[in-house]
């Protein structure tokens, strides 16, 4: 797949476009407006952006335009934050040490008040880690939408993730499995927080490109309909998200090729000790790549104003105010709530499914570092082809993000059905090496686009100016589901005959994925969501205005009394 197909200047195809639900946008497109978008002229225009429902004073003249350098730096951060260190090989390193320690103590280890199977320990560790993530995201997200200091949130948690990745060099012996468990849990927290707040930047990046600024001016001049403007907005967000994911996949394949050479150089097949050391070196190498690739973003990112602190409040009280406002009035955003519920349930199913399959995969390949690396090469290569194909199909046929997301949901249901069959036969259901290779290809091509399109849908149901809070809320939902699912799956495994049927959770996961996919497919309407967001922002402006007037009136009354 040629890079220019994904990165060329024609990513936004002018003319009639698909709206949020995949229907053709209505109304003709004025040629002058088309020319504005195609050329990207006048990006520094001071036209006011309030027509888009923004209440932050976010006019084009006041907010920095997205430059090519800034966008490339944003892409590079994601290439580095590919998950190889803390999300892919971190779990393998932990499970490898747990398995060696358990073998020496009768197959079970003491953890959380009782002796447990290795897979049960991993699932419980995931659950506790995800619970802590939820608390942190709620605390951080409430404040991050205010002012211009949001960039420091990502920098802080990136530094924590870097430290954890490098610390794995000191943990590669079975006797240190408890330390490995701590690194794994904190590493997951840091990694997920960095991804959340890196992703939260992309709606503002997309909406401040020359293309969308030109489209907004064309809309204000009556040359574009609201449906066409919304469609271009969605397509630009899809472009940034999908291109970032595609570039990350390509970069990850190149890193894995280097990792294979490193593994051969270390002789990881020589002994279990060398294999364990190889996993730690691999995590540290991937972390070093992340550090190098992320630095340009911290230099190139432009400060863009967030929500103004409401009159009469400080930055400390504004976060609590925003949480109260969101919880009080979010019920008006019914489509946002529909997706929040569906995202919670389907995210629970997918996150737990990936964890369960990973434990089965590690057992099938006996934790061999080289084999795990080759499997990742297949999976990530398929991921690059998959996300590239999804984006090219969406762009070529003007298909909405919701329709593309529906395809991904079907693939998730099929994946859980595949695992469920493993309860009835040993010939199918992630029990055989050939299945693990096939799984990596299927997961990469058909399921991994979830990680792009689920975020695009979040941005589609998020009122402008509230990205950090809403991305935090949605990721809290994802994390809450991610610790509920592992706890349930761990209990299912413990309750199975002998306490070791690692395929038993697929009964629960198949039913959950089928129900949640049907719910989102049937009830989520992105057109209706756009209208609800406009009404929500209008009401918010009215509430802030009234609060401001009350503060002014109070001051005037105080002066008169004085």
Describe the structure.
The protein is 72% helix and 1% strand. The chain has 20 helices and 2 strands. The chain has helices at 3-7, 31-39, 68-80, 84-103, 118-144, 151-167, 177-199, 202-207, 210-220, 226-266, 272-300, 315-329, 334-364, 369-397, 401-421, 433-447, 450-460, 467-495, 505-523, 526-561; strands at residues 109-111, 114-116. It has a two-stranded antiparallel ribbon. The longest helix has 41 residues, at 226-266. The protein starts with a helix and ends with a helix. 52% of the residues are buried. Residues 43-61 have a biased composition (Acidic residues). One of its GO terms (cellular component) is vacuolar membrane. It is found in: Vacuole membrane. Residues 1-63 are annotated as: Disordered.
Features of the shown structure:
vacuole; 20 helices; Growth Hormone, Chain: A; transmembrane; membrane; two-stranded antiparallel ribbon; 562 residues; globular; ATG22/LtaA_families; 2 strands; mainly alpha; single chain
């Amino acid at each position: 797949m040629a890079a220019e197909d994904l990165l060329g200047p024609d990513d936004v195809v002018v003319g009639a476009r698909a709206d949020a639900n995949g229907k053709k946008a209505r109304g003709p497109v004025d040629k002058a407006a088309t020319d504005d978008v195609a050329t990207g002229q006048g990006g520094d225009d001071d036209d006011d952006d309030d027509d888009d429902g923004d209440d932050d004073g976010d006019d084009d003249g006041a907010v920095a335009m997205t430059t090519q350098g800034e966008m490339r730096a944003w892409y590079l951060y994601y290439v580095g934050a590919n998950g190889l260190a803390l999300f892919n090989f971190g779990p393998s390193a932990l499970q490898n040490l747990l398995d060696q320690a358990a073998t020496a103590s009768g197959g079970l280890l003491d953890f959380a008040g009782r002796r447990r199977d290795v897979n049960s320990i991993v699932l419980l560790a995931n659950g506790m880690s995800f619970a802590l993530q939820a608390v942190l995201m709620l605390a951080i997200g409430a404040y991050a939408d205010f002012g211009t200091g949001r960039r420091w949130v990502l920098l802080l948690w990136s530094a924590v993730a870097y430290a954890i990745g490098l610390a794995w060099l000191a943990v590669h012996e079975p006797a240190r499995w408890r330390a490995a468990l701590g690194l794994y849990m904190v590493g997951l927290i840091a990694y997920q927080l960095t991804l959340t707040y890196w992703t939260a930047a992309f709606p503002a990046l997309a909406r401040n490109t020359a293309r969308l600024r030109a489209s907004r001016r064309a809309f204000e001049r009556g040359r574009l309909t609201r449906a066409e403007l919304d469609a271009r907005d969605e397509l630009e967000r899809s472009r940034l998200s999908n291109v970032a994911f595609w570039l990350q996949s390509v970069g990850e394949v190149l890193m894995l090729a280097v990792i294979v050479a490193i593994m051969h150089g270390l002789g990881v097949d020589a002994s279990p000790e060398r294999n364990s050391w190889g996993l730690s070196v691999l995590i540290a190498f991937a972390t070093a790549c992340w550090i190098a690739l992320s630095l340009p973003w911290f230099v190139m990112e432009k400060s863009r104003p967030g929500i103004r602190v409401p009159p009469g409040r400080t930055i400390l009280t504004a976060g609590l105010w925003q949480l109260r406002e969101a919880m009080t009035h979010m019920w008006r955003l019914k489509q946002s709530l529909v997706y929040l519920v569906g995202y919670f349930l389907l995210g629970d199913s997918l996150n737990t499914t990936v964890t369960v399959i990973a434990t089965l995969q590690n057992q099938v390949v006996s934790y061999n570092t080289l084999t795990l690396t080759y499997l990742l090469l297949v999976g990530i290569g398929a991921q690059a082809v998959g996300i590239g194909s999804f984006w090219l199909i969406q762009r070529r046929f003007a298909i909405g993000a919701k329709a593309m997301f529906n395809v991904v949901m079907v693939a998730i249901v099929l994946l859980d059905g595949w695992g469920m069959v493993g309860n009835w036969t040993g010939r199918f259901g992630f029990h055989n090496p050939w299945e693990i290779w096939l799984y990596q290809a299927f997961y990469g091509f058909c399921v991994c686009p979830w990680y792009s399109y689920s975020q695009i849908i979040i941005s589609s149901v998020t009122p402008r100016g509230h990205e950090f809070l809403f991305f935090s809320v949605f990721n809290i939902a994802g994390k809450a589901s991610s610790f509920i699912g592992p706890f349930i799956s761990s209990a299912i495994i413990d309750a199975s005959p002998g306490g070791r049927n690692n395929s038993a959770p697929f009964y629960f996961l198949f039913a959950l994925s089928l129900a949640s996919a049907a719910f989102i497919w049937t009830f989520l309407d992105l057109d209706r969501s756009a209208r609800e967001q406009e009404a929500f922002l209008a009401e918010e402006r009215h509430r802030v205005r009234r609060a401001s007037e009350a503060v002014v009136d109070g001051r005037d009354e105080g002066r008169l009394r004085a």
